[in-house]
C-alpha cells in the first residue's frame, strides 16, 4: 500500500508521558516501501551487539488519587465517527472516542511522538528483522472478564486482515504481517513479509485494536460486525447512537486501575456555539473546537480553561509542480512569499495555528531544525512572478468545513494572491467531492491549487514524507503536488536505508530538500482548541487531535 | 274527518321521514363514493409523485459529484480498496440495475444499509422519527395556536396599535433567522439563567427551546395568514347579513368568519407540519436534536446514498400523506367543496 501524509489522523493512543530528547522523529520511523529498524531496537542493538533486544515496557496508567466519582464526564465533539467496529469504520474523525477509552492496541502513540508498548509488555526483534516475539502484559482482562491472551491478539489481527474489511486503516495495520504464531498464553510471534521498521506505529492504529474473541459471539456482535467492541480499555462500551452520542461505563477491572469518572458520554454536537454553551451551562465538562472567535473571551472566563495545543496537521496548498503554470520554482516561491500567513492565522484562524516552517509539522519532530518559514514579501513575490513571466489564473479548491476555517483561509490566500497580480478564485467542495479530487491522476489535474490538511497516522517522519516520492502520485498515493525530484527521492531512499538517529536525521534533511522544492504554499500547522470546565484536571490534547480524558478528574 | 286528517298526517310524516332517511343514505353513499374516488385519485397521483421522487433523487445523488466508494474507503485508500468498496456498495453495477434495486427495495420495505453505520436505513429512520415527530407536533401546535390567536386579534383590532404590534410580530416571526434565534435562546435561557438544557432529548424540558425556536416561523406565517383571511371574511356579505339579523359580532366571527377563513390557514399549517416532519435541519443542528434533519445532512455530506435515497422517499411519502389529510380537512371545514365536486 502506498503511504503518505494521511488526510486523516488515525490510530494513535493516549500518551501520558512524553518528551523529546533526540533530533529524530522519535519512535518507529520508517516507510512501508523500504524498511529499517525501529529506533528503540536499533539503539539497543548498537549498544549491546546482540541480535535482539527487549524493548520498552509501556508506562502503566496512573490510578486516580482519592475516591472515584459517581458522575460521568461529558464531552461535546463536532462529528460522529464512522462506526464502532475497529476494523469497519471506527476510524472516522481523529477524535473518535473509541480509541484508548474502549479499544486498546498493542502499542500506543501520543504527544511527544513516542510509540510505546501498551498491551505488549516487552518484545524482541529477530536479527533479520522479520520476527517480532511479543509478550503481553499479564493480568489484563477484557470487558467480558476473559483474559487477554496471545490467541485473542492473533484472532484480532487476523480479523483485521480479513479481506472483507479491506480499507486504509486495516491495510496499514496488517499488510506487512505474514503470519502470527501463538507460543503460549502471553507470547506470540508476528512474522512480517519484509522488514517493517514502523510496525509498532501500525499496531498503534485503532484498526489493530485487540478484541475479545468471545465477545464476538455475544449479540449484537458477530464476526462481520463487532459493533459493541469488547476490548481492554478503561471504559466498557455501552451504546452508540449515530450522530448523537457514545456512552461508555467505567471498567472496574481495568489493568491500569479504574478511571476517576464513572462513565464517559461523548455528545455529537455539530454547532460550535452550542458546544461552547454546553460547557458554559455546565451541561458538558469539555468541548472540542469551540467557536474560534470566542477563544480570547473564553480564555479570560474563570469558569473554563482553554487548551490550544499544536498538532501534527499541516495545512498547505498543493501546487501541481508538473504543470507548466507551476513548473518554474520562482512562481512557487512567489506564491509562498505573497501570503501573509501570520495575518491569516491571527484574523481568520483566531490564533489556532503556527506558521508552517517545514514540510512536516513541528509536533512530529520538534527537534528537527526547520528551514522556514517563508517570509511575507509581496514585492519580492511580484518581482519573481514578473521575472518568470507568469500570468497566472488559478482556482484554489478547498473542502468546506473539513479543516478549521478551511474555506475562509482559502479565500484569504486568494485575496493575497490577487494582490500580486494572480487571478485567483476559490472553489469550495464537500467531503465526498474532495476525496474524489484528491484521487485525481496527474493527467487530469492541470493547474489546480488544492488546500489539504495532512497528518500522519502516527508520528513518523518517513510516514509523513512518503507522499513526496513519485510512486505516491494519486490515485495510488498522496503526492498531491506530484513532486518528482531525483534529489528528494534519493535523499528519501537513503534515509530509509539508515537506522536509528542517523535515519531520523536523514529524514530531517529530506524534509528540508522537499521544502526547497517548494511543492506547496505552506500555510500553518493546526492547533486543536478545546475548552473544559475550570475544575477539570488531567485532560490532554494529543498531537493527532485526540482529546484524552481518561486521566481526567474533577476538583469540584 | 279529524281522524282521517290525523292518519294522513302520520302517513305523510312517515313517508317524509323515510324520504329523508333515503336521501341521507344516498348522501352518505355519495360522500363515500366521492371520498373513495378522491382518495383513489390522490393515491394514484401520490404514487406517480413518489416514482418521480425516486427518479429525481437517484439521479441527483449521482450527479452531485464525489466518489462514494472512495468516501467510504477513506481518502488514502488504495485503488484496489476503493474498488472493493465500490463492489461492496453495489456501485459497480449499471445505473438501471442500481435503480431497479432501489425501487424494488422500496416496494419490499428494504431501504438498504447505511455504509457509515452498517445498519438498515429503515431502522435508522424509525429511531429518529419520534424525535422529529415530537418536535414537529410541538412546534406546529404551539405555532398554530399562537398564530391563530394573534392573527384573530389583529384582524378584529384592525388599524389599532394592537394590530401594529401583532403585525410586527408576524413579520419578525417569518424574518428572524432561526439559527441565530436558537443560539440566543440557548445563551439566555440555558447558559445565563440555566432554566432549560442546552441540547438533547432526554429531559422533559429539552423540547422547550427547540420547539420555541422552530415555532417562531409558523407563528409569523399563521398570524399573517389568519389576519388576512379573517379580514376578508369579516367584510363578506354573509358576515354583514348575520350582523344585520342581530347576531353579535363575536358570534359572527366565531360561527361564520373563522370557519371560512380557516382554509388558507389550514393549508399553511399543513405545509409547515409536512416540512417539519422532514426535519428542521438548522434547529436540529443548533440543539443537537436527534432528528431526521441532522441525519440527512450528514448523509448528504458523506454521500451515504442509501440513507439519502431512503430519507427522500420517506419525506415524500410523509409530505404527500400530510397534504392528503389537509385536503380531506378542507372538505370537513367547507362542505361546499364536496358538493361542488
Explain this structure.
The complex is a heterodimer of chains A (556) and B (341). Chain A is of the alpha+beta class and 556 residues long. Helix content of chain A is 24%, strand content 21%. In chain A, the strands form five sheets. In chain A, strands 1, 8, 9, 10, 11, 12, 13, 14, 15, 16 and 17 form an eleven-stranded mixed β-sheet that branches. Chain A has a four-stranded antiparallel β-sheet with strand order 4-5-7-6, covered by helices on one side. In chain A, a hairpin with a 4-residue loop joins strand 6 and strand 7 (187-192). Chain A is globular. The N and C termini of chain A lie far apart (49 Å). Residues 1-56 of chain A have low confidence and may be disordered. Chain B is mainly α and 341 residues long. Chain B has two domains: 68-108, no CATH class; 123-339, MetI-like (MetI-like fold). In chain B, helix 1 packs antiparallel against helix 13 (305-333), helix 6 (161-175) crosses helix 8 and helix 7 (178-192) crosses helix 8. Chain B is flat and about 100 Å long. Chain B starts with a helix and ends with a helix.
Give a concise summary.
Chain A contains 15 helices and 21 strands. Chain A is an alpha+beta fold and 556 residues long.
Mean pLDDT of chain A: 83
Low-confidence stretches of chain B: none
Mean pLDDT rating of chain B: 86
Of all chain pairs, the largest interface belongs to: A-B, 52 and 48 residues
- In DSSP terms (H or I, runs of 4 or more residues), the helix count of chain A works out at 15
- From the 3D structure, determine the CATH topology of the largest domain in chain B: MetI-like fold
Strand residue content of chain B = under 5%
